[in-house]
Design goal:
The protein is an all-alpha fold. It is built from 16 helices and no strands. It has one domain. This is Permease.
Length: 336
């Protein structure tokens, strides 16, 4: 006896999307935006013509226009280093003794450009290929801080203070080497979790290069815009008496700009122009801003935690911050 067949539940076919729907909505959206622009043009014109907004716009545009070419150049160079230079090159170039490898790796940052976004995966590749962690961490801190693009941008941003370039180079190199030696002395292997896969595995070099360029331009460019907005707001909206009172205390000024560098999370190719706009503060305080920023900021802490583990980031970032403040203050007192 044949078993009765159960009726199959009716399956609703997905409603086909009409590509003209989006096209039809586009003019409506544009018309709505235009109507809103017409309605608010008088209040908007009045707000933009105020002295505060004119100052804000001037500072914002100046910072972005001056910094953007260096940011793009730095991204192109760092992508080329990350994709086309084999990690084995660094292993052959470093001394076998870790204590000597630390300053060599730190000095390598002066000739191997890379922004902080690129230095984290490059450092992971170095550790994975056998470079001592202390030397790799020295490179992690020095590469975004003392590479040629950053030093050139600093010279352009401080045309009347050429000694700022030397002070940034010396202070950043001292911090990177000190952190490398400190890790060599006190660091533990269970604090550091190196990544297990290279960043560009399985991709053609050209595709990996342009992927890295697109990612870093969008990522670093976004932080540049936010940093320029913050600098312009600080310049235009904060009363000068507040900034003068804060800048009058040398120690408070150094700590304040160090914390500001952590919060703004600027790309190292662009931070010199923001520092140059903070004219209320001393050169030493602005040096602290330039030394701390490429080594410790919110995006770097997040990237380090995701790449090397939370235990590493919670120990490495605060120690680097305090050491950077101390060394930049000492260097600024001597050289500036």
């Amino acid at each position: 006896m044949a078993t009765p067949t159960r009726p199959r539940p009716s399956q609703k076919k997905p409603k086909p999307t009409n590509p003209t729907d989006r096209t039809d909505r586009t003019p409506l959206t544009l018309i709505t935006v235009l109507i809103l622009a017409v309605l608010v043009q008088n209040p908007l014109r009045g707000a933009l013509s105020s002295p505060v907004m004119q100052t804000w716009t001037t500072v914002f545009v100046a910072v972005v226009v001056q910094a953007m070419p260096f940011l793009v150049l730095g991204v192109l160079l760092s992508a080329a280093i990350a994709v086309f230079v084999p990690p084995s090159f660094f292993t052959r170039a470093l001394p076998t003794r870790p204590s000597l490898a630390v300053p060599v790796a730190g000095a390598a940052g002066a000739v191997l450009p890379g922004c902080e976004c690129a230095s984290v995966p490059v450092t992971g590749a170095l550790i994975r290929r056998g470079v001592p962690p202390a030397a790799a961490l020295a490179f992690l801190l020095s590469a975004p801080a003392i590479n040629p693009v950053v030093l050139t941008a600093t010279a352009v941003a401080f045309p009347d203070t050429p000694e700022m370039v030397l002070a940034r180079l010396v202070a950043s190199l001292l911090v990177s080497c000190a952190m490398g030696w400190l890790w060599l002395r006190l660091g533990r292997t269970d604090w550091l979790r190196p990544p297990t896969h290279p960043s560009h595995e399985g991709k053609p070099r050209a595709a990996a290069f342009w992927d890295s360029v697109r990612h870093d331009v969008l990522h670093a460019g976004g932080f540049l815009i936010l940093g320029a907005m913050a600098a312009a707001t600080l310049k235009a909206a904060v009363p000068e008496s507040w900034l003068s009172d804060l800048a009058a205390n040398p120690w408070a000024a150094v700590v304040a700009l160090g914390i500001l560098a952590v919060v703004l999370s600027l790309c190292s190719e662009a931070d010199a122009f923001v520092a140059a706009s903070l004219t209320h503060f001393s050169l030493t305080a602005r040096l602290a801003f330039l030394v701390v920023g490429p080594m410790v900021d919110l995006k770097l802490i997040a990237m380090q935690a995701g790449t090397f583990g939370r235990s590493f980031a919670l120990r490495f970032a605060p120690t680097t911050f305090l050491l950077a403040l101390a060394i930049s203050t000492a260097t600024g007192t001597v050289l500036l």
